[in-house]
């Protein structure tokens, strides 16, 4: 169907930035080699052989503002919400290194966005592996003029840190108090070598991690205790929205699944989801399940698992004009506070 012209800017909430400065500061730190070896095992040699050249050919889009804006123009995107590549999380790092990582990431991301302030908004990083430092890192990001931070589905380790960890309660409270945007974007999957072929580490791993992380937030009552949180889930929330009925059934049938105040499906309307689901039918289902006001345009710019034509993918879902326009930009403009 024909779509009317938008009155709001088109906004892509899922776009990435490479930070060479972060990689330079961790290059000689203990723990990096082990983390890289784990990542290699999880992905497998075939995936690494493809991913290396893919990233290298996209470095201009990931680092150069002029190249980014030119591609946005070609896509019909007015504004990007730019977040660091998840490869920069470095959740293996000790406290001193973690502080350097978030300070550098926040500063470099803010500097990148400041070169085109009308078109670029940014997110920083926090060290989930050190929950007691998360508020400090969030405040640093906000002080830099960023809108919030990007987080993974968990912080690996022994023990790891899930998003339901009580140590993160001050972080959730501060994020709700400040209105910070939290972009939930997994990196890696704890299914490990079971997914080390055919790029299952990404195609299956990412939506699995999204579903697990969101389930921790819902079932643990985080969203009950902090109703003002502004969480955007990448990849359409993964498998959770399409299989949320199973979560509802568990909540009704089992007392051990009743950590939240109401049916899990009701919390989908308290979250936001990007549109990057690679299937028009799934996008229509996401809109029906979460609500048309809870879905935002997302492309995973400029990686190969993203969509080079996010507005085309949105049109393919053949949604009503008002819903199309809401997802293309109106919802994000309201959430991000764009004029």
What would your notes on this structure say?
There is one protein chain. The chain is of the alpha/beta class and 339 residues long. The protein has a single domain, classed as TIM Barrel, CATH 3.20.20. It is 46% helix and 12% strand. The protein has helices at 20-26, 32-43, 45-57, 59-63, 65-75, 95-114, 134-143, 169-178, 200-203, 205-219, 222-225, 244-253, 280-290, 310-316, 321-336, and strands at 11-17, 79-84, 120-125, 148-151, 154-155, 161-162, 181-184, 230-233, 272-274, 295-296. Helix 1 packs antiparallel against helix 6. It is globular, with a radius of gyration of 19 Å. The mean pLDDT is 95. This is Amidohydrolase. Residues 11-338 form the Amidohydrolase-related domain. Keywords: Lyase.
Oligomer: single chain
Query: Which percent band covers the strand fraction?
Result: 5-15%
Report the CATH topology name.
TIM Barrel
Number of DSSP strands? 10
Gyration radius (Cα, Å) is 19 Å
- CATH class descriptor name: Alpha Beta
Corresponding CATH architecture: Alpha-Beta Barrel
Number of domains: 1
> Stretches where pLDDT falls below 50 for ≥5 residues?
none
Order of strands in the sheet with most strands:
1-2-3-4-7-8-9-10
Helices, by number, come to 15
Biggest sheet record: 8 strands, parallel
**Outline:** globular
Mean pLDDT: 95
Structural class: alpha/beta
What is the fourth-level CATH superfamily?
A: Metal-dependent hydrolases
For the termini, the CA-CA separation is: 28 Å
User: What is the N-to-C order of secondary-structure elements (H for helix, E for strand)?
Assistant: EHHHHHEHEHEEEHEHHHEHEHEHH
Helical amount? 40-55%
Pfam family, one: Amidohydro_2
Protein name: Amidohydrolase
Keywords: Lyase
Domain Amidohydrolase-related: 11-338
């Amino acid at each position: 169907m024909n779509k009317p012209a938008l009155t709001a800017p088109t906004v892509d909430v899922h776009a990435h930035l490479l930070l060479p400065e972060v990689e330079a500061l961790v290059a000689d730190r203990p723990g990096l080699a082990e983390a890289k070896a784990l990542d290699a095992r999880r992905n497998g040699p075939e995936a690494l052989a493809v991913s290396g050249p893919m990233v290298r050919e996209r470095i201009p889009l990931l680092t150069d503002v002029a190249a980014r804006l030119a591609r946005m123009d070609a896509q019909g995107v007015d504004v990007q919400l730019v977040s660091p590549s998840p490869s920069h999380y470095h959740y293996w790092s000790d406290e001193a290194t973690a502080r350097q990582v978030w300070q550098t990431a926040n500063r470099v991301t803010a500097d990148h966005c400041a070169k085109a302030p009308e078109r670029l908004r940014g997110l920083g990083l926090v060290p989930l592996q050190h929950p007691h430092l998360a508020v400090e890192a969030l405040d640093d990001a906000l002080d830099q003029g960023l809108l919030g931070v990007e987080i993974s589905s968990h912080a690996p380790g022994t023990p790891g840190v899930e998003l339901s960890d009580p140590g993160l309660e001050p972080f959730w409270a501060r994020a709700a108090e400040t209105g910070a945007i939290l972009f939930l974007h997994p990196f890696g999957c704890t299914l490990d070598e079971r997914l080390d072929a055919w790029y299952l580490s990404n195609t299956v791993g990412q939506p699995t991690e999204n579903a697990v992380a969101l389930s921790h937030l819902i079932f643990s009552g985080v969203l009950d205790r902090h109703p003002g949180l502004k969480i955007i889930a990448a990849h359409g929330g993964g498998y959770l929205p399409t299989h949320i009925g199973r979560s509802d059934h568990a909540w009704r049938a089992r007392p051990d699944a009743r950590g939240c105040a109401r049916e899990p499906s009701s919390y989908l309307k308290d979250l936001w989801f990007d549109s990057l689901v690679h299937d028009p039918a799934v996008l229509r289902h996401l809109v029906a399940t979460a609500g048309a006001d809870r879905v935002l345009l997302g492309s995973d710019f400029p990686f190969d698992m993203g969509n080079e034509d996010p507005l085309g993918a949105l049109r393919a879902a053949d949604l009503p004009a008002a819903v199309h326009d809401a997802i293309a930009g109106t919802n994000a403009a309201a959430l991000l506070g764009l004029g």
